[in-house]
TrEMBL record:
GO molecular function, one term: phosphoric diester hydrolase activity
Residues of the Phosphatidylinositol-specific phospholipase C X domain: 42-214
One GO BP annotation of this record: signal transduction
Record has RNA-binding as a keyword: no
PANTHER family with a match to the protein in the record: PI-PLC X DOMAIN-CONTAINING PROTEIN 2, PTHR13593
Family annotation (InterPro entries): PI-PLC_domain, PLC-like_Pdiesterase_TIM-brl, PLCXD1/2/3, PLipase_C_PInositol-sp_X_dom
SUPFAM superfamilies for the chain: PLC-like phosphodiesterases
Residues forming coiled coils: none
Source species of the chain: Theropithecus gelada
The protein's name: Phosphatidylinositol specific phospholipase C X domain containing 2
Key words, A-Z: Hydrolase, Lipid degradation, Lipid metabolism, Transducer
């Protein structure tokens, strides 16, 4: 009977995404689809800026189209080289930073998404695509995939950070914002005081989506949050030691109020890094061997007004990244318990 009760609790919390007939769980079946809904009640009233929230870097780049033109985020030299078909195949190895789709990331517990978008040369329909060197899926398709998950998990809150725009004029921005409205409707949370945003207040308003828009166009729509409300300092290094020092320094400089904070726990390849590991790609050359050390740093962190908030990573499935970040919220529970004693 106890085992049955535990299984029911896990299903309610979303820790088993797709149970199999044998009763055992594979790694692909364990998830955190409802981790926000499952937090203890005393955390429901904490500002979201005080919680530990897992995110992904270049969240959409699980698929890029090597047959499409090179993106406008690349230099003219790269565009010329990319006329050679082999070059695009190599570019793909360095453009892809995730293995999981939006849906799979959400089920794993990812709640912050780093988004870069662009129009595509020759497209007459104003369609907007995700971009990281090469074009990814249509933004509309990604938004619909995310909305489908949110409808099925009404207490989960997500951050969509549109922070890079390429080859986009006012018409493109209007088209993108309309797509966002069409996809999420009443789930969109209007910009307001960061400290007023708690799980409980969002649940009461049935809001699930915060859109950050790093462009002056945000002023035209109340549901677009300015980019300055979610700073994401970038270390721009291949060294784990330098990355951790940078993360510690920027956390110590974090504003105590008025904004969220993104700790980008990622390494960035330099030209010589790519040259040395050309065929291996980002995952095999830089991420795979360094991610465990980065995860060790995450395990030492503590959320709160002056602690970590959102932490992002490449290839979030290679280690137990999302679960490790989510578990940091247990420290907030310990603080509350000590305060009561």
């Amino acid at each position: 009977m106890l085992a049955v009760r535990k299984a029911r609790r896990k299903l309610r919390m979303g820790t088993i995404c797709s149970p199999n007939p044998s009763g055992t769980k594979t790694s692909s079946e364990v998830c955190n689809a409802d981790w926000m809904a499952s937090l203890p009640p005393h955390l429901h009233n904490l500002p979201l800026s005080n919680l530990a929230i897992p995110g992904s870097h270049d969240s959409f780049s699980y698929w890029v189209d090597e047959k499409s033109p090179v993106g406008p985020d690349q230099t003219q030299a790269i565009k010329r080289l990319a006329r050679i078909s082999l070059v695009k195949k190599l570019m793909k190895k360095w453009s892809v930073t995730q293995n999981l789709t939006f849906r799979e990331q959400l089920e794993a517990g990812i709640r912050y998404f780093d988004l870069r978008v662009s129009s595509k040369p020759g497209d007459a329909d104003q369609e907007i695509y995700f971009i990281h060197g090469l074009f990814g899926i249509k933004v509309w398709d990604g938004l619909m995939e995310i909305d489908s998950f949110l409808t099925q998990h009404p207490q989960e809150i997500i951050f969509l950070d549109f922070n890079h725009f390429y080859a986009m004029d006012e018409t493109h921005h209007k088209c993108l914002v309309l797509r966002i409205q069409e996809a999420f409707g009443n789930k969109l949370c209007p910009a307001c005081s960061v400290e007023s945003l708690t799980l409980r207040t969002l649940w009461e308003k049935n809001c699930q989506v915060l859109i950050f828009y790093h462009c002056p166009f945000y002023k035209q729509h109340p549901f677009l949050w300015p980019g300055k409300k979610i700073p994401a300092p970038w270390a721009n290094t291949t060294s784990v030691r330098k990355l951790i020092l940078f993360l510690e320094t920027t956390l110590s400089e974090r504003a105590p109020r008025g904004s969220f904070h993104v700790s980008q726990a990622i390494l960035t390849p330099r030209v010589k890094t790519i040259a040395r590991g050309l065929v291996g790609g980002l995952k095999n050359t830089l991420v795979h061997r360094n991610l465990p050390a980065i995860l060790d740093w995450v395990k030492t962190q503590k959320p709160g007004a002056m602690g970590v908030n959102i932490i992002t990573s490449d290839f979030v499935d290679l280690v137990d990244f999302a679960a490790t970040v989510i578990k940091l919220n247990d420290l907030l529970q310990e603080d509350t318990a000590l305060a009561k004693c």
